[in-house]
Amino acid sequence: MGRITKNMKASLAKIEKGKTYSIDEAAALVKEITYTKFDASVDIDVRLGVDPRKANQMVRGVVSLPHGTGKVVRVLALVTPDKVNEATEAGADYVGLDDYIEKIKGGWTDVDVIITMPPVMGKVGALGRILGPRGLMPNPKSGTVTMEVGKAISEVKQGKIDFKVDKFGIVHTSIGKVSFTPEKIKENAAEFINTIVKLKPTAAKGTYIKSIYLSSTMSPGIQVEPKSVVD
User: How much is the pTM?
Assistant: First the structure.
């Protein structure tokens, strides 16, 4: 068994064992239990009462966080020449098509999001084996395959994220930084949770939101009372 660090002991001492916190309490506490020297991410884990193995219980969607994620998102726009200016003006970090497709085939994937257009999906689709495992494959459902390239890039830069329930029935994502105020953390968490609630599959029975945990990079998790978040 690994040793518990001094900082982890200090963090655990601030969390009352067995207690479920309101989102207001958790948003403030997550800042107190973080001792990293960098601006740690604030993460949220939501366990759902669904069976992801069944197609009619898959939960996947997008959400625009009111205060963004606090992360610098590197965007690659794979577009035709007539869309290059639109993508560049919207803030894409890399813009092109065939040259970047060849670069990706060579192993380059140093981006966070790839946005493309329906007419070039034939070319982009060939990159599925490389982009798929890294979660970079553009998808119409997440808004990353669209003719409104500029709008999609702006939304991603401002804090739009896509999420998907994993095979264990858990949705995990980052909703901000420890440097955010508790109010901003709370509001981002509420927007994320309520988006998940709206996506509840009709086939899902029983308790839908089973548990919510808030944590930061390298901190223990804080259990959150779902009723304190859901509208």
Answer: 0.78
Q: Report pLDDT digits (tens) over 152-161.
A: 999 999 888 8
Whole-number Å distance between alpha carbons of 209 and 35 = 30
**How does DSSP classify residue 67?**
T
The residue segments making up the domain with residue 12 are 6-69+160-228
Compute φ and ψ for 45, nearest 5 degrees. Answer: -120, 125
Dihedral angle of Cα 100, 105, 109, 111, to the nearest 10 degrees = 30
Cα–Cα distance measured from residue 218 to residue 58, given in angstroms and rounded to the nearest whole number: 29
**Gyration radius from the chain CA atoms:** 19
Give the domain CATH number at 126: 3.40.50.790
- Give the pLDDT confidence of 161-180 residue by residue, as tens digits: 889 899 999 999 999 999 99
